[in-house]
Amino acid sequence: VRAARRHMSEKFVIKGGAPLQGSVTVSGAKNAAVAIIPAALLSRDICFIENLPLINDVIVLRDILTSMGAVVDMPTASSMKIDARGVTSWQAPYEQVRRMRASYYLLGVLLGCFGKAEVGMPGGCDIGLRPMDLHIKGFEALGATVERTSEGYYVQADPLVGGEVYFDSPSVGATINTMLAAVRAEGETTIVNAAKEPHIVDLANFLNTMGASIKGAGTDMIRITGVEQMHGCDYAIIPDQIETGTFMIMAAATGGDVTVKNAIPFHMEALSAKLMEAGSEVVEGEDFLRVIGNPSPKAVNIKTMPYPGFPTDLQQPMVAYLSRCQGASIITESIYESRYRYVDELLRMGANIRVADRVAVIEGVDKIYGASVNISDLRAGAALILAGLIAEGETHIHRLRHVDRGYQSIEKKLQDLGANIERVEDLDAPM
Ligand code: EPZ
């Protein structure tokens, strides 16, 4: 646990050039964990959750639940026992909530538990506007009123009743928040144009194991029949789709040969297709993927889309990879309006990328070079690490707190694959 609470002033020093070789085991899915941990409050009982990633977002959630009266133990680094019997508050602590995006799931959970909730404005990655209108639409469909307060949101429903909600775009967060409240509402709820990401299905499976009645998760129509009570359970979280993809792209980019274990190949189809199009070999096993990089990869075009399309969370490492592929690649970011901030850092490393609005045009170059670069958000961190791995010379990567929010021991996993990466104290840390 201490390892996950890294000091802010650390940096990675990477000496590029080594092809990654060997095997790496993926941790549990961050974006499933951050929904499933608060969801444990929906039962007045004990939930035991396994295959959790040991990352800062998980530690922050543990602290939030503890300060709300839950008894939370971590018997191992990847498991958590949550006893929610002591939780009586429908308010979440403001200071901790603003440290992460997914704390907004407490709105749905507490609304389901108590018929009301007050939660501060969530923090998280700065990658665009990230509005909450669809979450609010979901709560209102359940008979709730939503008030914006000076610090966040106050939601209440008397009674909380099932309803139908249509989402204009399939928002992951709004689908999850609506499910979290609807499992305890009276009657049936239908979510139309729901998000279909693997962690939506994982959360539904967790809630059903706790006694909820959710059908259709993973399709664009989810039906939930509310139940009066939910009980404790034992549950193992799915492997992280984005961490899996990050290592796959790194294997391809370094011209390596890496087996990514504890993966679900089915979740990776959009990425596997693009890596093969660029010239890599991708071998799918039951619970692993092997990527054999091509020494002269080709440019590919990509449009990020909701699942099962190409995930926006892999756009950043993919662009870093394409910076050295032969030819011009065109990337269209259709989910977030400002997820290209890290491109400035890649330019400083010698990449040739032009960004106009949501489109990035990448002209592959023969070489990129080590530089001192700053991480702006979680997946930008993955992109810059990848750039360091393929750059000539030494790359210094600052602001590791973004990476520590979402990747468990990334430098150790990379060292085991033969990368030359060290975490050191950052004496010249940028402000
Ligand atoms: C989740 O964010 C993930 N976060 C993100 O992962 C991921 O990038 C995103 O889904 C898309 O897959 C968590 O699961 C904690 P959305 P979320 O609601 O739920 C618009 C990472 O790097 N929208 O599906 O916030 C929104 O502006 C992170 O791990 C509204 O218009 O994403 C965006 O354009 C970053 N109104 C689109 O929908 C709303 O009320 C998708 O957002 C909500 C969203």
In brief:
This protein is α+β, with helices and mostly antiparallel strands.
Could you walk me through the main structural features you see in this protein, from its secondary elements to its overall organization?
There is one protein chain. α1 (30-39) runs parallel beside α2 (56-67), α8 runs parallel beside α10 and α10 packs parallel to α12. A hairpin with a 2-residue loop joins β19 and β20 (359-363). The protein has 431 residues and is an alpha+beta fold. The protein has 14 helices and 23 strands. The strands form 6 sheets. It has a 4-stranded mixed β-sheet with strand order 21-22-1-23. The structure holds ligand EPZ. Ligand EPZ binds at residues 31, 34, 101-102, 125, 128-135, 169, 171-174, 195, 197, 312-313, 335-336, 378-379, 406.
The 3D shape can be described as globular
What oligomeric state best describes the polypeptide chains here? Answer: single chain
Beta-strand residue percentage: 15-25%
| Strand adjacency order, main sheet | 21-22-1-23
pLDDT < 50 runs, ≥5 residues? 1-7
Bound molecules: ligand EPZ
Largest sheet: 4 strands, mixed
Number of helices: 14
Roughly how many Å apart are the termini?
27 Å
Averaging pLDDT over every residue, what do you get?
94
Radius of gyration: 21 Å
Q: Can you count the beta strands?
A: 23
Structural class call reads alpha+beta
- DSSP helix fraction: 25-40%
Protein traits:
4-stranded mixed sheet, 431 residues, alpha+beta, globular, single chain, binds ligand EPZ
